[in-house]
Amino acid sequence: MKPDFKNLPIVYLHPGEICYSDKDIVVSTVLGSCVSISMHCRINHYSGISHCQLPACKEPHDNCSVCLDPYKYVDCTIKNMIKKFNEKGISNEEIELKLFGGADVLQTVSGMVKINTVGSQNINSATKTISEFNIKIAASDVGGERGRKLFFRSKTGEIFLNRLKNNEKN
Fold first, then answer.
1. How far is CA 148 from CA 55, 86, 111, 114, 145, in A?
2. Residue 113, pLDDT score
């Protein structure tokens, strides 16, 4: 079933980007090994969604405040998103967080085991960083070998997910 987004603005989120909104919009993105973190506050309908490429920032001492590309990295993205929500007066307990992506989409030689892939590293970084803030993951669909196309409705925090066929771009 495809959701009906008639008359709603649709924003496409590229890798390394984030979108915050208190308006009713739809944000779309396509994930392979990347992960997407969405956060939503049901009280004031403030939302954010990201498209992260790599697990961890390379800045010394995990200082995401000086990171030159903070939404490229899973750990910095989560820290910055939570900071933004807190600045809006939203406590961590009011954040509904969802996590998607981290697939192992690259082909491997038959019989080879995929270990410590970018997808699995992204998932591990996300779950570790989220746990540091004592936020419960409300929903997730991670791992596997198929990419995902997401549609995020900012007003409700709903995620509509389509799993892509192997090698499908969108």
1. 18, 29, 25, 19, 10
2. 58
Q: If you write DSSP's letter for every residue of 105-131 in order, what string do you get? A: -S---TTPPP-S-HHHHHHHHHHHHHH
Helix ranges restricted to H, 52-104 = 74-87
CA-CA distances (angstroms) from residue 44 to 95, 98, 104, 143? 11, 18, 36, 31
φ, ψ for residue 16, nearest 5 deg:
85, 10
Does the pTM exceed 0.85?
yes
Report d(CA 107, CA 169) in Å as an integer. 15
Residue 46 · residue 88 · CB < 8 Å: yes
pLDDT surpasses 70 at 1: no
DSSP 78: H
Judging by DSSP bridges, how do beta strands 10-12 and 26-31 pair with one another?
parallel
In CATH, 10-163 is 3.40.50.300: no
Cα dihedral 70, 73, 77, 80 sign: negative
* Residue type, position 61, single letter: H
